Amino acid sequence: MEVLRINLSNSSIKQENPPKDWQNLGGRALISKIMVDEVNPTCNPLGEDNKLIIAPGILAGTTVSCVNRISIGSKSPLTGTIKESNAGGTTAYKLARLGIKSIVIEGKADDPKLLYISKDKIEIISAEEVWGMGVYDSAERLKEKFNDKIGLVIIGPAGERLYRSAGIANSDNNGSPSRYSGRGGLGAVMGAKNIKAVVIDDSNAEGIKMHDDDKFNDSKKTITDMILGNDAIKNSYTMYGTSNLVKLTNSIGALPTMNFSRGSFEGSENINGQKIHDLIVERGGEGNTSHGCMPGCLIRCSNVFPDEDGKTIVSPIEYETIGLLGPNLAIGNIDTVAKLNYLCNDLGIDTIETGGAIGVAMEAGVISFGDEEGAINILEEIKKDTYLGKIIASGASSTGKVLGITRVPTVKDQTMAAYDPRAIKGLGVTYATSTQGADHTAGQTIRANVDHRKPEGQVEASKGAQITNTLHDCLGTCFFLGGAIGGDLNLLAELYLSMTGVKLTLDELMEISKETLKRERKFNTDAGFGPADDRLPEFFYKEENPDTGTVFDVDNNEMDKIFDF
Fold first, then answer.
1. Are strands 414-415 and 410-411 parallel, antiparallel or unpaired?
2. Is 90 exceeded by the pLDDT of residue 120?
3. pTM of the model
């Protein structure tokens, strides 16, 4: 496996063998290593000294289910911290098949560029013909230019304009640029470097050379059988996708409603997993209740949501987007949520951050809660690059400052995902202490064996989740895989052994995860972050969630020790 170093300032391309201490590092672990060793923590996130790193996990490149998530990392222009933003799709699979361990993009091009990568050549070419275009049209143009089997890492107008909510889209199994590394504004980093897209052509790639084919196939079969035999997965994620969480979070008072002012939404039955499933089946056409976003996926938690004529509105529509663009805005029309989702995707902006910003704008009276047409018009303002559009696209924290609103659900300037931290307090700990800003994927505790409304045990629950979730980000595995295989992560160590011949125990893998977190903490500390930044917004400590009767009351001193390991 090799490292590609692309210096856009002088148009140089270097193919390097990775250092020995990178051997067992992939995804988020490798990003943290490169960032700490090579990037000044106080650099301007949108300046030439920042780097954009694209890194498959160490298990990527095969069709084992759920092992091909991609990590994209940098210093975030939204949070000011180190940032790893994770997505499904085909990027990791195709890069690993080409023998690429990571791409490190440095400097800045003078004009818009594409990075083209194939088995036979790597080159930097003009992107003028697609610069300024939306994500979907850009992707179609590039597939016409190259071939329809390419993978894409691509930004929209939001990234080109350096909006702090800009994400990076990755192609899915169908070639749609819909799998988002959405969080942290990394699309703006890509735009600041004048890169529109990375085009990945793995035609005729040699693929992964196995250390032990027989053992690899045995491990793959074991994982496959466990997933297919898991009725809980089949009857939840496979049938309803992540939207199945709407019913659960609403029932426990954790569904953010009207700018996180409460935790349940009266119209939740119109936007939950059952409703979405039934509408897809009823409308037919291009709709699909279940499909996999990456090669070999058996959980298939993605979907294609159609309009009344069976034409695709968006794919996929997922829980976090539903929560922030639905109940958080008091919108209970799933067709409107789907349209908002599509518009965000095409602009190249994070649906979570955008939902947070529009919620703050609604609280300020820019439009009313529940105003579906007004919400769509705000996204049109972003598209037209008006002053209001610029404000919203700068994220919820900036929107609150400009509009004079103090109830802003952010930590380190990043909007919380779709869980109220007064109802799921372990996630509140994760939001507060994560190196990544308020990010549920940094340490999801909704399934933890604790009383979510009491402060006791929440720090330990978050600590365990943050270590485990980081491990998945390093391996490139989907978080859902852990549950699908009964939590037996030793199977992943066995898979790695059969692929590479390197024997790592589960304890050693967990140590890699812990070291990753320590490096990220060091980067943030050196960037000027401290304990005062590891707190939720004040209103969560003082305002009761009326649907739970609770505030966030986990002890700060206990939270400050979460990474003492």
1. antiparallel
2. yes
3. 0.97
